[in-house]
Specification:
Order of helices and strands: HEHEHEHEHEHEHEHEH
Distance between the termini: 23 Å
Shape: globular
Radius of gyration: 17 Å
Bound molecules: pyridoxal-5'-phosphate
Number of strands: 8
Helix content: 40-55%
Strand order of the largest sheet: 7-6-5-4-3-2-1-8
Structural class: alpha/beta
Length: 222
């Protein structure tokens, strides 16, 4: 019952235009089922293998989001089942996703992951790298991916001002790229930012997708 209570409280706190992605990594199929029966249809996983196993055991109307770092050699496993990939951090990966999606006659919604934190460990593209990817003439020939927006992760810190500034910088990148590359393309519309500890700040800074795990399912046991 706790899961459905948590979901209800989080949904009530989110504006209507913000999509809640329930991050179910390291949580069981039965916990995901509980969330599903409480009306949650969108789930995020960060590992290819785990997503595949759960996909097979759960209802087919779930929308699956891959949110973790993705290696090009693993794209083929999820291309038939994944709806969104939040962690596109290279041209090569985008091209591979397009090729694999083409084989299955699918379109996969993609977010470009940008580096906004001060920590060394986080994956992601810089603004010049995103521009280079978008200016690559091949990118516009990719028929089986849709570039839907940006994703970013703030630093792991208690400093709320720093987190707010980092999310604000992602929103500014989004606005600049929208103007420069997608002025007439309504599909480029998403900013995926905000996790359990910082999603209220992310929403305040313009997030349209929050990726929340712990606040729904409780602590992960590794
Ligand atoms: C695990 C994870 C989340 C969710 O984290 P919580 O703190 O449990 O809400 C969000 N985004 C990514 C990329 C993750 O790996």
């Amino acid at each position: 019952m706790q899961i459905s209570e948590n979901l209800k409280n989080i949904r009530q706190s989110l504006p209507e235009n913000v999509k809640l992605i329930a991050v179910s990594k390291n949580h069981s199929v039965s916990e995901i089922s509980e969330a599903y029966h409480a009306g949650q249809k969108v789930f995020g996983e960060n590992k290819v293998q785990e997503l595949m196993e759960k996909f097979d055991k759960l209802p087919s109307d779930i929308e699956w989001h891959l949110i973790g770092h993705l290696q090009t050699n693993k794209v083929k496993y999820i291309a038939p089942i994944v709806n969104w990939i939040h962690s596109v951090d290279s041209f090569k990966l985008l091209k591979t996703i397009n090729n694999e999606a083409l084989k299955h006659n699918r379109q996969i919604d993609c977010l470009l992951q940008m580096y906004i934190a001060t920590e060394e460990t986080k994956f992601g593209l810089s603004l010049p790298e995103v521009k280079e990817l978008l200016l690559n003439p091949e990118t516009s020939t990719f028929t089986n991916i849709r570039i839907r927006g940006l994703m970013g992760m703030a630093s792991f810190t208690d400093d709320k001002k720093q987190v707010r500034d980092e999310f604000g910088s992602l929103r500014n990148y989004f606005n600049e790229l929208k103007q420069g590359f997608f002025p007439n393309n309504p599909l480029f519309s998403e900013i995926s930012m905000g996790m359990s500890d910082d999603y209220p700040i992310a929403v305040e800074q313009g997030s349209t997708m929050v990726r929340v795990g712990t606040a729904i399912f409780g602590q992960r046991v590794y």
